[in-house]
């Protein structure tokens, strides 16, 4: 009996189930018939160049849109972070932080559907400059307040 079980064990080693979910490393062939024909039939250079130019233009356009969106989001986050420092009320009794955030949101919503790259770039640069100027003024004002406070104490 021991011999009988032993043969099954050795046969069981050789009879392993086939894995259907594993990737086929040898197959790097085309996915469509067009790809197959493009790989194996000579295409006119002009047509091939035109296709590549259209694809390159589309890729560049997407990259530009992605980068400007990323820059706009970065600017918006910087504005939100910077408004944390404006914690005093204005003449109406509203916190400057809330007023500035509301104005920033309104500006971004108005420019949301802008498609002209020059206008978008101009808005982004203007936003960065305005944010930096506001932070510089805040720092100067804080320095003046500290000096004034130290003058009374010292």
Automatic annotation (TrEMBL):
Domain Complex 1 LYR protein, residue spans: 70-132
One record GO biological process: mitochondrial respiratory chain complex III assembly
PANTHER family given in the database record: COMPLEX 1 PROTEIN CONTAINING PROTEIN, EXPRESSED (PTHR47484)
Top-level taxon of the source organism: Eukaryota
Protein name in UniProt: Complex 1 LYR protein domain-containing protein
Signal peptide: none
One Pfam family this sequence matches: Complex1_LYR
One cellular-component annotation, GO: mitochondrion
């Amino acid at each position: 009996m021991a011999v009988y079980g032993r043969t099954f064990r050795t046969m069981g080693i050789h009879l392993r189930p086939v894995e259907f979910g594993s990737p086929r490393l040898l197959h790097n062939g085309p996915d469509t018939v067009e790809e197959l024909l493009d790989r194996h039939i000579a295409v006119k250079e002009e047509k091939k160049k035109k296709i590549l130019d259209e694809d390159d233009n589309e890729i560049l356009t997407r990259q530009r849109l992605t980068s400007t969106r990323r820059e706009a989001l970065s600017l918006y986050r910087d504005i939100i972070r910077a408004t944390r420092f404006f914690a005093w009320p204005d003449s109406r009794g509203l916190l400057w932080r809330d007023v500035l955030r509301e104005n920033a949101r309104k500006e971004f919503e108005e420019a949301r559907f802008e498609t002209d790259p020059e206008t978008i770039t101009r808005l982004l640069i203007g936003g960065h400059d305005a944010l930096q100027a506001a932070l510089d003024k805040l720092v100067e004002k804080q320095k003046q307040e500290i000096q004034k406070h130290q003058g009374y104490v010292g």
